[in-house]
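User: Predict the structure for this protein chain, please.
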Amino acid sequence: MGSNPEPIEKLMSLSRAEFERSMLVLNGSLFPASEYKLVCGGGHVTIAYHELPGVRLGTLLALPRARLTIAFDGADLSARETFLRRFDLAFQRGGG
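Assistant: Here is the predicted structure, written as structure tokens:
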């Protein structure tokens, strides 16, 4: 069994709908929730969405904000690293 490191927190410009779409990419199934528990190696990972007040930039741009908490339970280092790479790809958005 792996150790349980401190949860990872990510502050993101992300609406609930965007979170659920990215979770579909990551998990392969969609069910609306604020928290997901997924298998990760020999353990689990819990991803929680916490909506925060949005940010307004000038008069034209308003951005949603959220804090995501990623907590591993019983997953070894290799499984955690693999999962975090998958997470980053699933939550990556194009820009230009």
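The CA atoms of residues 55 and 63 lie 5 Å apart.
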